[in-house]
Amino acid sequence: SATQLASLTPDQMKLFGVTAMSGLTTEQVAALTTTQFAVLSATQISALSTAGMSGLTVTQLGKMTHTQFAALASTQLGALSTTAVAALSTTQIEALTTTQIDGLGRMQIRALETTQITALSTTQVASLDATQVAALTGTELTTLLPTQMAALSSTQFGALSASQIGTMTPTQIAALLPTQLAGMT
């Protein structure tokens, strides 16, 4: 049970193999203390199933090391709750690879805070697919810096709705490239 798992010492947690980690349920992962979670290796964390990942708490996520965080697959990030995604630090956002960003779904993109949006690199913004760009809220879109806006391809720009485009700031509009305008249909 989750209660039994929570009673294990950090030293015992270190001994969990990949198979054991992959079998942890949502409830069991949520029951892990931050001390237990902190001792898990990148290999152990990368073995968590999507069900296990959905149990990650905001506190656990906040305590993840750079090495642990880098080990997450895109499917694992895709399993995070919107609350967990909204709680990612700007440092964690900056550390996301383009492959990891690909795993974020529509609702997770919508859950991003404005500070998280501005923390995205131009490479990360350029890696968003059309569905992810279309999921940006008006507030998120207006938060994009001109350099981030310039990173959007014509396909990405074409995915924006008229209401999203209507929220763009004068600075963003002035920074639009001819190729982006060509994406407007």
Task: Give a quick rundown of the structure.
This protein has about 180 residues and is mainly alpha-helical. It has 23 helices and no strands. Helices cover about 65% and strands about 0% of the residues.
Care to describe what's here?
- The chain is mainly alpha-helical.
- Helix content is 65%, strand content 0%.
- The termini are far apart.
- The mean pLDDT is 92.
Topology:
Elements: H1 2-6, H2 10-13, H3 18-22, H4 26-31, H5 34-38, H6 42-46, H7 50-53, H8 58-62, H9 66-70, H10 74-78, H11 82-86, H12 90-95, H13 98-102, H14 106-111, H15 114-119, H16 122-127, H17 130-135, H18 138-143, H19 146-150, H20 154-158, H21 162-166, H22 170-174, H23 178-182
Uncertain segments of ≥5 residues (pLDDT<50)? none
Main pleated-sheet profile: none
Query: How large is the share of residues in beta strands?
Result: under 5%
C-alpha end-to-end distance: 54 Å
The tally of beta strands, per DSSP, is 0
Q: Give the H and E element order.
A: HHHHHHHHHHHHHHHHHHHHHHH
Question: If you average the pLDDT, what whole number results?
Answer: 92
Q: Which structural category do the helix and sheet elements fall into?
A: mainly alpha
**Helicity, in percent?**
55-70%
Number of helices: 23
Shape: elongated
Integer-rounded radius of gyration: 19 Å
